[in-house]
Amino acid sequence: MKAELEIKDKTKQTEGLKIAPFRQHIRKTSPHKHNSYFEIIYLTKGKGSHTIDTKEYEIKTPVIFTIRKEQVHFWDIKTKPEGFVIIIKKSFIDNCLDKDIKRLISELSAQTCLFPKDNTAIDIFEILLKEYQEKEKPNQPIIYGLLKALLAKLLESATPKISKNGNSTIFQKFIDFLSKENELTNKVSHYAKLLNTTPQNLNAICRKEAGQSSAEILSEHIINEAKRLLLYTDITVSEIAHRLDFKDNSHFSKYFKRHVDQTPVDFRFNNN
User: Which parts of the sequence belong to the HTH araC/xylS-type domain (predicted)?
Assistant: First the structure.
């Protein structure tokens, strides 16, 4: 066990977007996070399992996995894998002027595991990879066009969820704030202030966009981060309580038990 989780970075400092074949030597990895980027993995071959946070997924190809920057994941692959990886940094999203690409990335990031009906997305992946690798400076309109087509194709496997108003921008910013490393605060009012809105309005937006209250969404992120720290580090429960902005260990333990039906100590013991 480690005091802090391992954080990996597979990109160059200047890269906002990276497309590459899935590395075939990968078999078993230790639990780790990514350095502030969103990763899409499309596997066409391979067997084994992929654990994201506390859930283990059997690898049944073709399969799509997405890993957000705050999530912990690790592999246990039994046979030679084949597929593709796309890494998208926040800098790419911030500088992207195509609203459809931003929307598609946001929608796909809400899907942890998808099973496409066929491998037709491979054609787009191969063209995109060739365009990305063969030119010293890739043609941005072509990259953007292919990426948009690919994201839309991958989302065909997901249940449609279409926002009908501009509130999705506030909602996505709220989710982005909740995903920031070591900055979770157990107060909806804090995030409403950051978003220049009222807690009541933020709550109404969350109910419209996600069918949950803002407090429910916040508690999900807090509980998920607490589980990661309990499972994958040796940080004490008191330290976790402090990191997640609880006034004391007792308050945090009661909060955790209310949502998980176990105390933090019991959860750590029963899952290790």
Answer: 172-270
